[in-house]
Amino acid sequence: MKVLIALHHPFILWNAPPWLSERLREDFPGLQIQQLPSYEGVSQEITGSEVAIAWSIRPEQFAQAKKLKWIHSPAAAVHQLLFPELVSSDVVVTNARGIHGPVVAEHALALVLALAKRLPQAMRLQQRSVWGQQILWDEKPTTREISGGTVVIVGMGSIGRAFTQLAHAIGMRVLAVREHPEAGIDGAEAVFGRDQLDLAFPQADYVVLAAPLTPATRNIVNAQSLALLKSHAYIINVGRGPLIDDPALISTLTERRIAGAALDVFSEEPLPADSPYWRMENVLITPHTAAVTEKLWGRHYQLIAENLRRYLAHAPLLSVVDKHRGY
Asked: Which residue among the candidates 145, 269, 309, 310 is catalytic per the annotation?
């Protein structure tokens, strides 16, 4: 059985390290493991592959992959894989949502704390050698405690659930928004459906976006939902860039109708140099680093190896994607 590893990205951490295939060969000596250093050769190598570990596969490559039965994405988001031919096929898709959840949740909490404690403003004052104690107190919204604050979390996958536990543990009031609100969430005071933003958003001091990108969640933060927020509320996005209608958020931030935003993901990445976000003092930008950790590929290996064992034993795989729902 042939396993193709085709992972190439401008950011070095997203590329599979050479030891990945070496260790797979040691642990699974009966498999043929082919790891490509770039996307060159994918069309040829995928033809005889039964398993592919890849960020994406083009429809014309998929059409050639007559033996393909399982695709694993090291990302949580798999929308780039879900073209009609693959969705309607019997090929199983798995993702790495369980790997990224706790790490991204930590980053989201760090962003909440940074906004609440006005750390970006303090850093700007430091760069100017300004002792800004009175300035930070006088500016609105002022520094605040997060214990007792209300956070609305949109998306209850591994990130949302992990963030709920962290936020609950430090005394935040957590309101969850998810596709199926009838399912309760430990640590959340209430659960709302996506059609109930008018009930959840007006209560928010912070809104954390951690939902997958689907037709139903695209632009879920738009002019209408932003108008529901308090003037001191913040938007934090660690999900996907297109969850936000950028012109609507930029207009809202420019007019100071909400306190600010912390954004880790964007509709276009890298974020273009002419994006208004760069010049906004009420925006904190992190360059899609929420999932960055030195332990990343060790965790990837554990999931890939466990699923390979399950696949060879004809057992159910972990982190299977519902191709019709998109996550």
From this structure: 269
